[in-house]
Design a protein that fits this description.
homodimer, 319 residues, alpha+beta, Glutamine Phosphoribosylpyrophosphate, subunit 1, domain 1
């Protein structure tokens, strides 16, 4: 009887396993019902689902959180619907300048790029910088020279262009607003079977930005952070205000110093950036698999899937 | 009698006034007795004294902390002894790429540049980005195009070159070490008569860095941060490790969330970066004028002057 009970317990533990999972976002903004045709809405949800599946499949096989967040973000970089990689917004000069960052919560190693114009996968380059150089952040032509030396795929700047991105810039100009517009970003946070967290973020940046402008996404501690002892975070929103309030690290710091949970910390940090003037959103997860996806914009493309079977794909405030 | 006592108290308060002052650094590293000739040591101390005086004079006249830190940092940018502006280290490609950041503790406004090759004063450009654009951080050619549009003085890249910087790179190559070397940075934190804090940092970055590499100096929350409610911070050291531990904001966060003082918080944050592998140093000050100048390298060029008459100019561990 004793042996049988022990067997049952072991079987139950094996079934539950160590929690793992992934949470992603495809940008926060005026994502409200009625804005999209049913076809476009469906395409967004399928895009999120595809990115989620790419990351989750890696975790399920026991792969590292770093691989999962890179795969999820890369999937959204390749999807023209999202403002990262193909589909990136245009700068005031009509060019694309891409930013990305990745961080490993187990070692606090990180890689980051900004001002990328010709590297097909900015998140892939950020990962290579983390793994193959003594540096964390590289920008512009220097970063692209390193990409070339590593055999990464280079593309013409127009590779990233979509009719929608061109139309967005034209629409903004028609309204003759010099005011910068918040724009989407994509990101992911994953927890693997070994209990390690990782985060990744990639973006085309703010629509109509001045060439050379860098937002929060590629800045470690601001748009991207991961520490197994606290949480992983990836942000989206009006970058300038996120920078000034150091959102991602502030969440980690609140958990470490105030002992509060990831959900409470994430809401508090996001509220600070929003009150300063910059609405947005973020996804975060702690090392036990607690997920939070707060936003102060009307909506946010977001999704998660956990090993306990829970999951969701949402874009509007309530769905 | 009562009136006389009240008068005496008021007079005493007027004499003491609101505390104000400035603390600066000229980089942390192997600053040990015997390394420099007496003439060079004297020149370093005079350089620190000059930068300190430039900032303090502004504060004394009631000027803003922002002006004081900019003036102090600009003085060190113009001084070929320090690794910022003229005298900047060389990249692996034999060029100069300069980074800088400035932040206003009253408003949390910030400006930052990286990968600057032709703007005479990187800290001046960072300030303009803070004040004249909706952005916080700008890099490379985009940042320089903005500098041109603002009438800033542009110079050939060789303007920043000094015989010492060339010799340093040659010496490193002779030793055939691919390993990156920590290098100096300059920075300042000031508190003005209105109780506002500001921070500024400027650097040529790590000697022999890959072109495009960005260190901690220009990253808001990492090498530079200021918040009147907590403190102002400017860091120097092995940037990659400072980025991964978000040093400047971690000090502010510890003060805010743990309620500890600036000195204790600064030591704790610096120790984290050092334990991860990156020694360095920093200067920090709170809104009451408490100053701290910790470092985990053998020495650090540093100085401070406060309105209570205290002050010092030091470079070695004990002097």
């Amino acid at each position: 009887m004793r042996v049988f009970l022990a067997f049952l317990l072991a079987a139950a533990f094996a079934a539950a396993g160590t929690p793992f999972g992934i949470v992603i976002h495809g940008g926060a903004g005026t994502v409200v019902p009625g804005r999209f045709t049913p076809e476009v809405e469906k395409a967004y949800r399928e895009g999120l689902e595809k990115a989620l599946a790419a990351g989750y499949a890696i975790l399920e096989k026991g792969g590292p959180a770093l691989d999962a967040v890179e795969a999820a973000v890369r999937s959204m970089e390749e999807n023209p619907l999202f403002n990262a990689g193909v589909g990136a917004t245009l700068t005031r000069a009509g060019t694309h300048e891409l930013d990305a960052a990745i961080m490993d919560g187990a070692t606090l190693k990180a890689g980051s790029v900004a001002g990328i114009q010709h590297v097909k996968s900015p998140i892939g380059l950020a990962r290579l910088i983390m793994e193959k150089t003594p540096h964390v952040m590289m920008i512009g032509e220097g970063a692209e020279a390193f990409a070339r030396s590593q055999g990464l795929e280079l593309v013409p700047n127009t590779f990233f262009r979509t009719p929608k991105a061109v139309a967005d810039l034209e629409k903004l100009r028609e309204r003759e607003k010099a005011k910068p517009t918040t724009k989407d970003t994509v990101g992911a946070v994953a927890l693997d079977r070994n209990g390690h967290l990782a985060s990744a973020t990639s973006t085309g940046g703010m629509l109509d930005k001045l060439p050379g402008r860098v937002g929060d996404a590629p800045l470690i501690g601001v748009g991207t952070y991961a520490d197994d002892r606290t949480c992983g975070v990836s942000c989206t929103g009006w970058g300038e205000f996120f920078i000034r309030t150091v959102v991602a690290y502030d969440i980690s710091a609140q958990m470490a110093y105030l002992g509060i949970d990831v959900d409470k910390a994430a809401h508090a940090s996001l509220d600070k950036a929003t009150k300063l003037g910059g609405p947005g959103g973020l996804v975060a997860m702690d090392a036990k698999g607690h997920v939070t996806m707060p936003f102060t914009t009307p909506g946010m493309f977001r999704a998660f899937r956990l090993s306990d079977g829970t999951g969701a794909v949402r874009m509007y405030a309530d769905n």
